[in-house]
From TrEMBL:
TM ranges: 52-78, 85-106, 118-137, 170-200, 220-241
GO terms under cellular component: plasma membrane
Protein name: Carbohydrate ABC transporter permease
Membrane topology qualifier: Multi-pass membrane protein
InterPro entries assigned to the protein according to its UniProt record, in alphabetical order: MetI-like, MetI-like_sf
GO BP of this protein: transmembrane transport
Keywords: Cell membrane, Membrane, Transmembrane, Transmembrane helix, Transport
All residue ranges annotated as the ABC transmembrane type-1 domain in the record: 52-241
Length: 255
């Protein structure tokens, strides 16, 4: 049942528009339109190739920034005496839906002159996902006994060495989990991209999909096709990280 929606989406991408809307529906195309995957890259609605590039760029850099900031923040707050209050503040930030602050962000970005730029969306996605990633990593760092840090420091390790050489292998599953959640959230982000990015070639795939939905007709074969393209990088990332996740769990249990 989990695969069924994806199978319907893939089969629909290989049909003509008339067959997609036909009654009764067909489960196997009468005529296979593999050319849909060629023609959708040059449709008048939106430049899909640039949309793919924009999505990869924004999601990739945002995930990297969140990882670099959240990892040391989670580690040091796990050892911080006032971590309870800090985590409460982090939790409060998650109670505000991102859509509520989009208008304010648009105004701020106008003042800084970065509306309709990749920088704006990278900052937005990084800010939206930083608190949640810090929360996830914090629980993993907190499970590492502080005595391990003390022993490493007695042996001459600095704080950064303790973090990267001692703690990082032990909390690797948490790092991988945070990366997956951050990348998928940035990949699927819609509201801020719709408001802040006005250039069609800079908009991500989540916004580009709406361009195929018109007032009088919808190019469903392209909607399905772009949707298939959109899930491929996420599946590849999960396939690559899944091995690392299993390896991290095994390493943590051995240590």
């Amino acid at each position: 049942m989990f695969i069924l929606p994806y199978a319907i989406m893939f089969v629909g991408s290989l049909k003509s528009r008339a067959e997609v809307l036909g009654i009764p529906p067909t489960y196997i195309p009468r005529e296979w339109h593999f050319d849909n995957y060629i023609s959708m890259w040059s449709t008048p609605e939106t430049p899909v190739g640039m949309n793919v590039f924009s999505t990869v760029l924004i999601a990739g850099i945002s995930t990297l920034i969140v990882l670099c900031v959240a990892m040391p923040a989670a580690y040091y707050t796990a050892r911080f005496p006032g971590r309870g209050a800090f985590l409460f503040v982090v939790l409060l930030t998650q109670m505000c839906p991102p859509a509520l602050v989009v208008a304010g962000l648009f105004r701020e970005f106008q003042l800084f002159g970065i509306v309709d730029t990749y920088i704006a969306m990278i900052l937005v996605n990084s800010a939206f996902n930083l608190a949640f990633s810090t929360w996830i990593m914090h629980s993993f760092f907190a499970s590492v006994p502080k005595e391990i840090d003390d022993a490493a420091q007695i042996d001459g390790c600095g704080l950064w060495t303790v973090l990267f050489r001692i703690n990082l292998p032990l909390v690797w599953p948490g790092i991988v989990t945070a990366v997956i959640f951050t990348f998928v959230a940035a990949w699927n982000e819609f509201a801020a991209s719709l408001v802040i990015l006005s250039s069609a070639e800079k908009q991500p795939l989540s916004v580009a999909l709406t361009k195929f939905v018109g007032q009088y007709e919808t190019s469903w074969q392209y909607v399905f096709g772009v949707s298939v393209i959109a899930i491929i990088p996420v599946l590849i990332l999960f396939g690559l990280i899944e091995k690392q996740l299993v390896g991290g769990l095994t390493a943590g249990s051995i240590k």
